[in-house]
Amino acid sequence: MLGSEESLFRDAVALDYDYLPKILKFREVQQKQFATCIKPLLAGRNGRNLFVHGAPGIGKTAACRWVLRDLEEETSEVIPIYVNCWKHNSSFKILTEICSLLGIRFIVNKKTSELFEEVKKVLNKKSVVLVLDEVDKLDDFDLIYMFLEEIYRKSLFLITNYKETLGKVDERIMSRFSPEFLEFKPYNNFETKGILEERSKYAFVPGVWDSSAFNLVVEKCVEANDIRAGLYLMRESGNLAEDKAARRISLEHVKEAVRKADEFTIKDKGDLDEEVQEVLEIVKANSGLKMGDLHKIYAEKGGQMSYKSFSRKIEKLEKGKFISTAKSTGEGGNITIVEYEKKLTEF
């Protein structure tokens, strides 16, 4: 049994998803493409732009941030800027964040165009790599246009889970963006195990994992296609083992962590009213369809809600992390794709 001063963890920070290990395994090819797009900036020329897409939790952000970190250590002549559009979902909010990162002060009450002028003064003295992560959450693309049009030496990287996001960008921006494309494929079983083993070396005291317990973490992580699921299970399993003063992390600790993961990642369906639960069941049975098609299925089943009311229920489910949506432009105009978010115990 663990003594009061003992711990199974060596450094639990290594289990944070945004933790950058010294070596980022199995993403060397993707990192090379990031670096290739940046390379002209090091010679004082304009860089190349990149559109990055792939499923959540498979290393897009980590690979990009790893290269930015390397760039920052290499030179002070290229400014690396990373902004997550989930947190900053408009041109104004992004520019406010960039001002903060660049140390630009006295920006209160300034308009978007005025903020950009302040940013432009700083960026045009050097070269810049601007990374907009989760770009599908953006409400407008004004900043992208201004950046491409008025910043002299730059590379722009747009990162998203959804390839269809590019369809939302209008032609005047696309003609200036002209990106290269980089798709991230999900990790296979071997790669997933290797990544989790690497994190385990940083995070835990050697020899604390039962092999069967660790293999279950890998299995659940592979099924979820999301490294974050494995990192969460490793952390939670370690905490559960410590709570019970155990010296090793067993299969039972992982099974309990899997059960607990549902409480952590998603709210209880019992918190939803009957109409919303009905919509959720339709999405679950028809994941990946357009919202309009889902509403048709709902109506065919006798549902009485209008399309507008149906879309509000979809928004509520997305806020509760029961589902995810992606907007794109199709033949009939803007469309919304709706996908069901599986819980770990459902695999």
Detailed description of the structure:
This protein has 347 residues and is an alpha/beta fold. It is 48% helix and 14% strand. It has helices spanning 28-42, 60-74, 91-102, 112-123, 142-150, 171-177, 189-203, 211-224, 227-243, 251-265, 274-285, 291-300, 307-319, and strands at 50-54, 78-84, 127-133, 154-160, 180-184, 323-330, 333-340. The strands form two sheets. It has a five-stranded parallel beta sheet, with helices on both faces. α8 packs parallel to α10 (251-265) and α9 (227-243) crosses α10.
Considering the chains and any ligands shown, give keywords for the structure.
347 residues, alpha/beta, Helicase, Ruva Protein, domain 3, Rossmann fold, Arc Repressor Mutant, subunit A, 3 domains, five-stranded parallel beta sheet, two-stranded antiparallel sheet, 13 helices, 7 strands, globular
Short description:
The protein has 347 residues and is α/β, with parallel strands linked by helices. The chain is 48% helix and 14% strand. The longest helix is centred in the C-terminal third of the chain and has 17 residues, at 227-243.
Q: Please tell me the overall pLDDT.
A: 90
Evaluate the radius of gyration. 23 Å
CATH topology of the largest domain: Rossmann fold
Which consecutive residue ranges, at least 5 long each, have pLDDT under 50?
Answer: none
- With helices defined by DSSP (H or I, 4 residues minimum), what is the helix count? 13
Instruction: Profile the largest sheet.
Output: 5 strands, parallel
Distance between the termini: 33 Å
Integer count of domains? 3
Shape: globular
